[in-house]
Structure formats: structure tokens, C-alpha cells
């Protein structure tokens, strides 16, 4: 069993490690330090909240997840939270890292006035997110735009 881990906002010094961690989730081509900082600053300007889970002894980043808060014209101007890029390093899966990151982001969404939190996932991950309190609802549509 692992000691408890710390969840905090991502910092500039974490970016290369976060990008490496995201490669366990999706295609995450390497970016220069300058490019990483530029993207990080754009995300902050857009209001994206990225949290990281940090191992207490090694200070290694073992998980990450992000929340985007979207104010709505409907629902009396309340917001919806969009969870993105949830990933735990393979060596630390099954230890509650992802679950605690999700709980943390749901708390952030709640204090940000969100009336719901949504996320997209593969069919294989439906049970995982159901166990974290989410429920399958409706459908997702996608249009890929060529670079």
C-alpha cells in the first residue's frame, strides 16, 4: 500500500513530466520547454484547472486530470464542468489516484457553480467512471478537423 499522495495545481516545473504521463493516455508528441510553457499559459488564460497527484516521497507526478468550466446561457447562467485528460501512471493504477483526482475536480466544479460535471470515455472505462459516481448519459459525437 502506498502512502497518501498530494493533489495540487500543476506548476510550470511539472509540465514535461505531465506530458510524459499523458502519453499513457493518448498521443502526446514531445514539445519544447518553450512550447509547453506557451500551452500552459494558454490553458490558464482559458480557465483550465489541471491537478496533479504527487507521490509523497519521490515527488514524482503519478496522475493528472483537468477541469474546464463552461458558463451556460441556460440553467440560470450556471456552469458545466468538463473533465479531460484523466490518467494515472501504470505503476500506480488501482490505488485511488484517479478516483481522488476526480473527487478533487468535482469539488472544484461545485465551488465554481457547476450544476453538473461531464466527461468522455471509451467503452472500456465506463465501469471505472461509474464506480467514481458518474453515469452513462446520451451520446458523444465527434468531427476530426485535419491539421
UniProtKB/TrEMBL annotation:
One Pfam match: Acetyltransf_1
InterPro entries noted in UniProt: Acyl_CoA_acyltransferase, GNAT_dom, GNPNAT1-like
EC number: 2.3.1.4
Molecular function in Gene Ontology: glucosamine 6-phosphate N-acetyltransferase activity
Annotated N-acetyltransferase domain residues: 5-147
Species lineage: Eukaryota, Discoba, Euglenozoa, Kinetoplastea, Metakinetoplastina
Reactions that this protein is recorded to catalyse: D-glucosamine 6-phosphate + acetyl-CoA = N-acetyl-D-glucosamine 6-phosphate + CoA + H(+)
Keyword Cell membrane set for record: no
An annotated GO BP: UDP-N-acetylglucosamine biosynthetic process
PANTHER family per UniProt: GLUCOSAMINE 6-PHOSPHATE N-ACETYLTRANSFERASE
Signal peptide (UniProt feature, chain positions): none
Name of the featured protein: Glucosamine 6-phosphate N-acetyltransferase
The entry's keywords: Acyltransferase, Transferase
Keyword Acetylation: no
Coiled-coil residue spans: none
Taxonomy, superkingdom: Eukaryota
Pathway noted in the entry: Nucleotide-sugar biosynthesis; UDP-N-acetyl-alpha-D-glucosamine biosynthesis; N-acetyl-alpha-D-glucosamine 1-phosphate from alpha-D-glucosamine 6-phosphate (route I): step 1/2
